Amino acid sequence: MGILNVTPDSFSDGGRFTERDAALRQAERMLADGAAIIDVGGESTRPGAAPVSEQQELDRVVPVVEALTSELDALVSVDTSTAAVIHGAAAAGAGMINDVRALRRSGALDAAAASGLPVCLMHMRGEPGNMQDDPRYQDVTAEVVDFLRQRIAACGQVGIPRERLLVDPGFGFAKTVAHNLTLMHEMAALQELALPILIGISRKSLFGKLLGRDVNERLPASLAAAVMCVERGAMIVRAHDVKETVDVVRLAHAVRQSSG
Ligand code: 9MG
Q1: Tell me, what's the pLDDT at 259?
Q2: Which of 33, 48, 79, 215 could form a disulfide with 41 if both were Cys (CB 3.0 to 4.6 A apart)?
Q3: 200 Cβ closer than 6 Å to some ligand 1 atom
Q4: Separation between Cα atoms, residue 226 and residue 244, nearest integer Å
Q5: Which of 41, 44, 61 is CA-nearest to residue 52?
Q6: Which structural domain range is residue 22 located in?
Q7: 189 pLDDT exceeds 60?
Q8: Is the CB of 108 under 6 A from ligand 1?
Q9: Are 81 and 122 in contact (CB under 8 A)?
Q10: Centroid of ligand 1 to alpha carbon of 259 (angstroms)
Q11: CB 168 near ligand 1, within 6 Å
């Protein structure tokens, strides 16, 4: 899953792809590099990010989704928590919703149900603006699995079948470095939910804190983490550096599936 941020303040591409044509070119390059999905986001979810209005998000996301779905043969996912954006994205031809708030915003469950689209439910506590303010868990992995189980049940109650769901542990969202490492170590526990697992780890600040690497120096750690996650059951890896990530993910999948 290649990341296409259409925010002026996105943390690692500096908002370079806010223009429709630039977004198209970037998506084309990611598809050529092997991406199967393009994830379009109009709200920065990096730690401390300011919220955007519904209208701003619609204005950023919908024209880009329309352009990608009409001009490219691509599965377009939309990174949003907002009911109106879910409706707008579905009408514009999106093929999936990626929600870091796991459909907890007002109206999001019903919008996702009405869209008929697959949905990725991610674990997060609080909001991007405050999620890193002293997050605490007794048992981070068990609590993440329990949260996802509750969100799967909430989806079931509005008629979103399990077959349309994916789950994501939410690396970097309301988690310390130690929480992220434990969660990665124990990630196979998510397999008990029996749903496809998506992960995002690309260039995250965890690598800055652990290894002292600037955002542009985090590719080796991002690739190593992607491999560890695939070994523990991840099926989809959300990434900025598509070409390199596709290589390591394909290798890790091949090793996972090989036998004697
Ligand atoms: C939008 N976004 C940023 N980080 C993410 C992650 O780790 N997973 C998912 N599903 N979305 C993310």
Answers
A1: 73
A2: 79
A3: yes
A4: 11
A5: 44
A6: 2-257
A7: yes
A8: no
A9: no
A10: 32
A11: yes
Q: Please answer whether residues 175 and 135 qualify as being in contact, where contact means their C-beta atoms are separated by less than 8 angstroms.
A: yes
Answer for the pair 11, 218: CB distance below 8 angstroms, yes or no. Answer: no
Number of independent structural domains in the chain: 1
Is the full-model pTM beyond 0.90?
yes
H/E stretch holding 235 reads strand 234-238
DSSP annotation of 16: T
Pocket flag, ligand 1, residue 98 (CB < 6 Å): yes
- Asked if 228 and 234 touch (Cβ cutoff 8 Å), the reply is no
Residue 28 CB neighbours (<10 A): 15
C-alpha dihedral, 167 to 218 to 175 to 106, nearest 10°: -50
Could you tell me which residues are beta bridge partners of residue 39?
3, 77
Taking the alpha carbons of 17, 212, 33, 65 in that order, is the dihedral positive or negative?
Answer: negative
**Neighbour tally for 163: CB within 10 Å:** 7
Tokens 């989704």, residue located: 65
Of 198, 228, 209, whose CA–CA distance to 47 is shortest? Answer: 209
The stretches of the chain forming alpha helices (DSSP H) are 20-32, 54-71, 83-91, 108-115, 140-157, 177-185, 205-211, 219-231, 242-257
From 238, 252, 174, 171, select the one nearest 37 (Cα to Cα).
Answer: 238
We report the CATH number of the domain holding residue 246 as 3.20.20.20
Listed residue (206, 199, 212, 205) closest to 245, CA to CA: 199
* Per-residue tokens: 48: 């401390």
Structure token pair of residue 35: 């991406």
Tokens of 50: 């300011």
Nearest atom of ligand 1 to the alpha carbon of 201:
7
For residue 149, give the amino acid letter: R
What would the pLDDT profile of 123-178 be if each residue is shown by its tens digit? 999 888 888 888 899 999 999 999 999 999 999 999 999 999 999 999 999 999 99
Q: Is 46 among the catalytic positions?
A: no
